Amino acid sequence: MSVDAKAEIVIERPRSDVAKIMFDPKCDVLWIGGLKNVFPLTPGTLKKDSLVNRVGNFLGRDYSAKLLVVRDEPDKMLELASDEPFEMKIKYDLKDAEGGTQVSVRIQGIVDHQYQVPPAVFGKMVTEAIATDLKKLKRHAEMQ
Predict the structure, then answer these.
(1) Which of 31, 56, 71, 94 could tie 79 with a disulfide, CB 3.0–4.6 Å?
(2) pTM
(3) How many domains is the chain built from?
(4) 44, exposed or middle or buried, with CB in 10 Å at 0-12, 13-18, 19+?
(5) The domain spanning residue 61 has which CATH number?
(6) Per-residue pLDDT tens listing for the chain (144 residues)
(7) Other C-beta atoms within 10 Å of 6: how many?
(8) In angstroms, rounded to a whole number, what is the distance separating the alpha carbons of residues 23 and 71?
(9) In which region does residue 51 sit, left (phi positive, over 0), alpha (psi from -120 to 50) or beta (all else)?
(10) Could you tell me the residue range of the domain that residue 43 belongs to?
């Protein structure tokens, strides 16, 4: 089955401040649900060809995922490819907005049979997970 899930939020901080959190793999555990550990495999903030290993749990299934940044625009966009918890492409988009930054996260992927969930339900679960992550990101960023 395929999944295409997206969520958006406005964070009342400048785009560069939001990017400092979202594009720093050491901050992932602060806002991405289900993560237990993150191991940057290249130093610094994420940019094209950066690698990071994320260890976590998604829908009751433990995973260790290697993510590769395939495209970037500093402080604006990251596109990552991952093999776990399912094969996917993740895109972070940051745009200037009235009073702050509009942040969107989109996940597109192919899910094999490891999840015994109907496609529509699975897509809804991924969308809800992204929305929850963005709310955590907003709380964290606006406290700074």
Answers:
(1) 71
(2) 0.92
(3) 1
(4) exposed
(5) 3.30.530.20
(6) 789 999 999 999 999 999 999 999 999 999 999 999 999 999 999 999 999 999 999 888 899 999 999 999 999 999 999 988 888 999 999 999 999 999 999 999 988 766 777 878 888 999 999 999 999 999 999 997
(7) 15
(8) 12
(9) beta
(10) 2-143
